[in-house]
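thread: overnight batch results

M.L. [08:02]
morning all. the overnight job finished for the chain we discussed friday. pasting input first so we're all looking at the same thing
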Amino acid sequence: MSPKYARMTAAEVYRQQYKRRSLGRIKMALIGTSAWGIMEVLMLRTIGKLEHFFPHLHRYFMRFLQGYFGGAVTPFENALESNINKRSWQNRQDWTRVRSNGTLNSKGEYIKKGDVMILPTQEILHLAQRANLRPTVSYCFCRQYAQEQGHKCELNAPIRTCLTLSLPQSVDSMAANEPHEELVKNERVLYELFKKADEIGLVHQVVFIPSPNYSYVICNCCPDCCEVLSGFRYAKNAQKYHEKQVSILMHEIDNLKQQIHSNSTADIESLKKKLHSTEHSYREHKKAAQLPISPLEVKSVFVSETITPTECSNCGKCASRCYFDSRYMAHEKMHYTPENCYGCGLCVTTCPKQIIRLVKRPKPIKMAKKGEGIAHVHPHQGSGHLHTDNN
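M.L. [08:03]
and the structure it wrote out:
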């Protein structure tokens, strides 16, 4: 480490580095993100009206946004607490501040609870305390808009669940910030908000723009109203449909080929045309089945883990609250696919046996902007070795 930074706190180190950015670039980033926040509402309302004339327009529009906008899943501390008795305001275990290997980190100091060591931005309550939040809880645009269209939220979630920022803020600066004094005073209010959202079954998300990595709203999202989560569900159902069609068309192609080779009918040309058309449909469905499920949904830095699978009672409660098809029931048994887990933590706080926990992902997720899978690097990964360990 440079002697210049040797005696500085992590926050001071970051501020020194942050000052190197020109004031003009910072202002342009703020203006751009603020404009996007306003335009987002206008665009979605416009798309909703146009979809009456152009079916599937919303789906294509959301896919167009891949790499330009996203929602990063960020769990609440209750899901990181292994002891169920400590999942309340009165009994909660405090986080402690630690440093990585005794060295400073440009993204701020880490916090630790039990065996979990994270950046402040990797847990929703700590992130909220370091953000430039407005003093009141805002309405959820997605839920309100769905209600205006006559849709009833399947979780019956309230309208006011979102926390908006006074001005868009760099996720990096949140990690380096100290908690705001006024938000620390209202920490219990924030805690109870996230706990209530957890009980309802809402997924905590930080909506952000990956370049220049600025966040402007903290959401508690339901699976059917949310623009991002509902897109995941729609894409998942579409994938299942296309996979089924691929299987059907494969058998149809085999049958057509057998009929052509066996010369069982004189109408060979008609069969060949039908084969050509079927093969074209097969390729289209196969291509659609391989599309990324949710280009706007970004996994958290955590993944769930069943501690003692033999103790699972197959009650299905965790599966009922897994909106990413990671945990599902089949033949009266619970099945788990870790690759599908987005690390929201709802399964942890739902399991009556308390045998599920969140652990850090084994390595950071880094994919190309237009790559398969998630669309962009998670904004809360941080630097250094900590995001690659299993602590």
